Amino acid sequence: MSSLHHRHLAVSPEWLALYYRHPLEITHGEGRHVWDADGNRYLDFFGGILTTMTAHALPEVTKAVSEQAGRIIHSSTLYLNRPMVELAERIATLSGIPEARVFFTTSGTEANDTALLLATTYRRSNQILAMRNSYHGRSFSAVSITGNNAWSPTSLSPLQTLYVHGGVRTRGPYAHLGDGEFIAACVADLEDLLGHTRSPAALIAEPIQGVGGFTSPPDGLYAAFREVLDRHGILWISDEVQTGWGRSGEHFWGWQAHGRNGPPDILTFAKGIGNGMSIGGVVARADVMNCLDANSISTFGGSPVTMAAGLANLSYLLEHDLQGNARRVGGLLIERLRAIGAASECVREVRGRGLMIGIELVKPGTDEANPEAAAAVLEAAREGGLLIGKGGGHDTSVLRIAPPLSLAIPEAEEGAAILAEALRSVG
Predict the structure, then answer these.
(1) 243-266: per-residue pLDDT in tens?
(2) How many whole angstroms separate alpha carbon 371 and alpha carbon 381?
(3) Residues of 208-223 as b/e, b for ≥16 C-beta within 10 angstroms?
């Protein structure tokens, strides 16, 4: 055990998990690579949990942070803040939500917590619809609507949560149905559920479930849900903490795959927009955002330094068409990984969009999740010079692959080759 690992264990909670048998201290990064304290170089296919969105040590972002820090680091939302207003203007326009208002937080958890506050206040209801296999953060209210027991340590809640079918396409009671029938069955389930309860405040849903293992419904499911929700006056919250900013390649926001009936009432974001700086936020229609009848501020949300980083990062993303790169390079990578998966008895499914890819592992010859294999592949990939993540629903048996959106084709090929070897090493 390293000295730093020993010190970590002495001062950190037992539930603060670390990857790897011998945990890694990352000291610096550049582009799509990072280095550890022993000087080992790794290709980064996880980006600090989908957060280093463009590249490590991106000059445009580091320059913006440095220059802003040299002027003023902090002021709070009690004062006018030019970088915050400028970033809010750009996000409001990009969101697709009419008359949008933007509130900045410091994390995705806090963004979802704020969205729940808005929805329950606006609707005067403490009931929330959430998806099975979902994850929305670690706060008391966010944990209480998380449909993944590995990340939900308590059943206590300020909310009454009702869980809906549809977030997982290839498991569960409707998995055998075609896409159209799957959507119809999930809509019928939602209609039936609403017949047995008081009217909920909102449905919160990740267009692609992140911690759940990059699962997603057929395109159009949430548009079909929207028709039901609108009849009951129920709001739709799209949790874009992991799916936003073009990571899926096909769309800038995950909700756009379900946009037939318009944008969500509330959209939450975080992670990639700051490229590692602590930014989260909520976008909502003006009437929803303005429904609070008590004072509220944010001490650290909208910090001048993080807003400067967000502006520089968003500009780089758009000017270099990183959404298009995610579509092109991600398409190639998922093809390679599907070919690799077809040769492995451990791989049940390779799924995803753009640079958001999941490889679900099972025990050979069965449909049973295989978390031991996932842990072994994670270790083997590291030995080969590649960092990936893991997640999943009932068991943590899905390899999560989400590189920075600037990933180059040779790097995608290199990462696929390392993953192929890692999968072969576990059978």
Answers:
(1) 999 999 999 999 999 999 999 999
(2) 15
(3) bbbbbbbbbbbbbbbb
